[in-house]
Amino acid sequence: MAPTAAFRRVLLKLSGEALMGDHSYGIDPAVATRIAGEVGGIRAMGVEIAIVIGGGNIFRGVAASAKGMDRATADYMGMLATMINALALQDTIERLGGQTRLCSALHTPEVAEPYIRRRALRHMEKGRIVILAGGTGNPFFTTDTTAALRAMELGCQALLKATKVDGVYDKDPKKNKDAVRFNDISYMQVLDKKLKVMDATAIALCSDNGLPIIVFNLLVPGEIKRVVMGEKVGTVVH
Fold first, then answer.
1. CATH for 203
2. Which residues contact 192 (CB under 8 A, 6 or more apart)?
3. Over the Cα atoms of the chain, what is R_g?
4. Structural contact between residues 163 and 216, judged by C-beta atoms closer than 8 angstroms
5. Is the sign of the CA dihedral 151, 152, 154, 155 positive or negative?
6. Alpha carbon separation from 66 to 71, 80, 195, 229 (Å, rounded)
7. Which stretch of DSSP H or E encloses residue 29?
8. How far apart are alpha carbons 24 and 92 in whole angstroms?
9. Which of 94, 119, 144, 197 fits a disulfide with 202 by CB distance 3.0 to 4.6 angstroms?
10. Residue 1 lies in a domain
11. Does 3 fall in a domain?
């Protein structure tokens, strides 16, 4: 591994919205290509990487259930949306020369292999970028919780939470000009202040297992690499 890399193995959590770019729906090919290129650059440094991707750019189960849809049905639809995003990201990474494996918690053998922990670990050891789709395979769990769970299962040293802002603030920086950004913050502070970093289940999982969460702005080119190199980027939750 390159001496500049601060982590040997990481899990990158991408929201579905990250793939939209300036659009209001779907996938922006230019954004997907940039993300894929940066992920490939991290892999080239010798860092093993797994990716959990959401589906909010296509379908959001919580929003649908709030409008009267059965929550379990809505969540399964959301899991299928993550499959669409994962296939798009896989195709983009491989077009740029990367090696990937798509693992799904849902049984979809035509497009993805089943998520099996030891198999996923072996893929990472062989230098493949492992894309994890289908959430946990269960309704009522978010892709944030999936990211925390998979990061610990796969022995990742950090969970990289890619967002549209440059860290964790005490209030919404888009609505409040006086919002203050934290350079680092504890898990308990996140829960006590009800900061919208990740859902409470994900934070609790990370807290119980001492897994640091690094929140950073995906919209800034090269930011993923800076995080992996250990530069002071975004907010560290520990």
1. 3.40.1160.10
2. none
3. 17
4. yes
5. positive
6. 8, 19, 21, 41
7. helix 29-44
8. 21
9. 144
10. no
11. no
228: exposed, middle or buried (C-beta count within 10 Å: 0-12, 13-18, 19+)?
buried
Is residue 92 within 8 A of residue 159, CB to CB? The reply is no
Tell me the two tokens of residue 202: 């994900």
In a domain, 2, yes or no: no
Q: Which sign, positive or negative, has the C-alpha torsion 164, 35, 17, 137? A: negative
- The stretch 134-151 carries a mean pLDDT of 96
Nearest C-alpha neighbor of 144 from the set 156, 157, 162, 128: 162
C-alpha dist (Å) from residue 199 to 29, 81, 115, 140, 141: 29, 19, 23, 12, 10
Asked if 173 and 114 touch (Cβ cutoff 8 Å), the reply is no
Pick from 172, 189, 170, 190: nearest CA to 180: 170
Between CA 95 and CA 234 the distance in angstroms is 30
Query: For residue range 159-200, what is the model confidence (pLDDT) as tens digits?
Result: 999 988 888 998 888 888 888 999 999 999 999 988 888 999
Q: Are 120 and 180 a contacting pair, CB within 8 Å?
A: no
- Say what the pLDDT of residue 65 is: 77
Number of helices (H), then strands (E), belonging to the chain: the values are: 8, 11
Which residue segment(s) compose the domain that 161 sits in?
A: 9-237
155 touches 61 (CB < 8 A)? no
CA distance 60 to 110: 24
The number of distinct structural domains making up the chain is: 1
Band of residue 2 on the pLDDT scale cut at 50, 70, 90: very low
In the numeric block, which tokens belong to residue 113?
Answer: 């292999």
Whole-angstrom distance, CA of residue 78 vs CA of residue 82: 7
> Cβ(22)–Cβ(28) under 8 Å?
yes
